[in-house]
């Protein structure tokens, strides 16, 4: 199924009108899952202070855990494991390379 549809009328006895970019991956569609995760986790960055910030992180009921590997801030990277609990989300720093801080507010 194409990710993008054009507004041309359907012709009788024909399939959808060809649209050259309809089957090309669209950046907004490919990135949407990451924007949803960013919104759920309240994820933001403060590169000047080398911080990864989580403000009131939440995971949906169907998602028990999330692993984030190689998350960069400046020249540092971090691997995180997030676990959903009944009233909050726990964040565990699995690996840290460089001077980077993970800050959580709930």
Automatic annotation (TrEMBL):
Taxonomy, superkingdom: Eukaryota
GO biological process, one term: carbohydrate metabolic process
InterPro entries xref list: 6-hairpin_glycosidase_sf
Listed name of the protein: Amylo-alpha-1,6-glucosidase
Organism: Ricinus communis
